[in-house]
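INTERNAL AUDIT FORM
Audit reference: QA-55
Scope: verify that the stored structure record matches its stored sequence.
Auditor: D.O.
Record contents follow.
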Amino acid sequence: MAAMMSAAAVSARVAPAASGKKMSARSSSFSAAMPKAAKRVNASVKSRGAMRVVAEVDEPIVKIGTRGSPLALAQAYMTRDLLKKNFPELAEDGALEICIIKTTGDKVLDQPLADIGGKGLFTRELDVALLDGRIDIAVHSMKDVPTYLPEGTILPCMLPREDVRDAFISVKYDDLSELPDGALVGTASLRRQSQLLNKFPTLECVNFRGNVQSRIRKLQEGVVDCTLLAIAGLNRMDMTQHATKILDTDVMLPAVAQGAIGIACRTGDEKQLGFLAELNHEETRIGVECERAFLAALDGSCRTPIAAHAHKVGDKLEFRGLIASLDGKEILETSREGEWSFESGQAIGADAGAELKTKAPAEFFAMLIENGGNW
């Protein structure tokens, strides 16, 4: 530790003791805990009352790039805390810096994602910041990450996956089956829309974007009758009290990579690769990359309703996937079981995607293209 602190030009400064006060955000209809501030690592010194000495590095060892939404920040803070826990040198004050990067998807909120470019809307600016050195690692919700990565970047790390299911949220109804004809469902997800309309064709789906807090606020203001959100995000922000019901994957198959956090870095950056290797959860990576192979085989984007889930059952990999028409009138499904390994998962996902692409009639793909599909 002494050698590290010397090389990093460690300095000491006097800082006032923390007040211990907690911050929270409130509205008339819900509350959400704000992300916790970083804990300082104090030098072992004796001091009187309100004064303490804090060890500090002059330059961050790792600059963590993230979007600025509450959920994205919660995921970045989770990454920061894991790095601190696993690497003593990163627990020094100032060793880690969180850098907020605003993406196109954050700036344009009044249009469906499919209309403004689909996949990459929440990652493009982070990729640029990574390549030009403004950040050292980028923390992503994996379902936002395209199946291709920009040259010069690598995605070697995924954190343990959260619950993959979707939550039904309503202040009027307890279940999807209770929704009356013409009920308004707020969703920007074509995947959710197509599966809902397949089972409940009389519902009306309307574009519904924004961060989790704003969507719940709009729901409680009566803008829509219900919405669906990934339960993973609600779990990470301690907001599960808003979930009316968690939907089984038989009812709503999740998005590819839903519930997974991925961390990218520059190709060949051995320092960051070493940090990320320690954090990687291989079971999550195998399942997610199987789903992404399925997506890649279908040339899928945010403009096409595609869903998939791969997970470990015993020592086997089980996979389910589907593609759907935008109106939900036609859904093509497939399933696989195979060896639990990275190579097997890749092969299973690619094979399942190729099967559905072959089975789908030409007019099915023509309809997707006519409605903005990317095939």
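Auditor finding: record pair retrieved intact. The longest helix spans residues 342-359.
Action required: none
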